[in-house]
Amino acid sequence: MHNKILDFLKRRQEYLSGEEISSHLKISRQALWKHIEALRNSGYEIIAVPHLGYRLICVPDRLFPSEIGQGLKTRFMGRKIYYFDSIASTMDMALQLGIKGTPEGTLVLSETQNKGRGRMGRPWSSPKYKGIYMSLVLKPRLLPVQLPILTLLSAVSICEAVREMTGLEAKIKWPNDIMMHNKKLGGILTELNAETDAVRFVVIGIGLNVNSDRKTLVSGATSLKEERGEPTSRISLLQELLGRLEANYLSFQKNGPAVITDKWRQDNVTLGRRVRVAFYRHFLEGQAVDIDSDGALLLRRDSGITQKVTAGDVVHCR
Question: Domains in the chain, please, with CATH?
Fold first, then answer.
C-alpha cells in the first residue's frame, strides 16, 4: 500500500485530499493517515494542509527497492531486490540466496554492514546512508579459472556509471580497486559457487564511497562527494550502474572477453607501471605489460620472462 500511495502522490505533484486518495485506493481515511505516518518515519517528506490535503515534497536518499525500480531500464539486473537498513554482509546473504536458486540478477543492498568484507577477508567500512554496498548474483557460462574477467567487467561498469552521472574520471587498479586521484573510491569482491569444470553462480560485491565525508573515510580513501564538492544521488547512480553492468555482461556473453578487456585497458592505471604483487607470502615484481583474455595480469620480470598473475595485492612502484 505504501508504494501505491507514493505512486499516486508522485503522479499528481499537487495537493491531494485525503478523501480523493482514500477513494482511489479503497482504504479508510484512518488507514491512509497511518500509511502516511509510516512513510514519514521512513524519510519521505509529506506535508498535510487543512482543506488542501497531502503533498509529497521530498524523497529520502535511501536505496528503497520501490525507488530503484522507478526508471530502472534493465531486463534482469536488480529486478529482484533484498533491501536491509543494516546487515552483517551483503555477500553472505547473496551467497545464501544463490544456493537457494534465486534468479540471475538478484540484488542484495544494505545501507550499512557491520561485517562487510573485501578481498582476503579484510574489513570494509560501510558508513550508513553514505555509500552503495551491494552484492549481485550472476549465472555466467564460465569456467572457474575465467572468473577474474567478471571483476574487470564490474570495474569497467563502475567507471562508466561514475563518468555518466558525475563527469568524473574513475580509474581501475588491477585487480579490483576503483581509484580517483590516487585514492580508493571503491572495491569489488567476486566469489563463486562452482564444480571443478562449471560455475553454478557468482556473487559480485561492490562497495562504493558516494557521499561519505572526509571524517568518515579511512586513510587513503575518497568519495564522490569529496571529489565533486556536492552530494550525488545514490539511487540514480545505482540505476546507472545496474544498466552498465547488464549491458557489459550481455555484450561479454555474446561477443567474448575482448569487449571488456579493451574497455578496461582504457580506464586502468596499472599497465605500463612497475609493480610489486603480493599474494599471501609470495612476492613478484616487474613491469605490468597487459592483461589476458581471462583478466589475469601479465607481468614481465626482470629476467625477461612474462608471468601470468591471477590474484594478489598490487603496489605501484613507479
Answer: 2-58 (1.10.10.10), 65-267 (3.30.930.10), 274-316 (2.30.30.100)
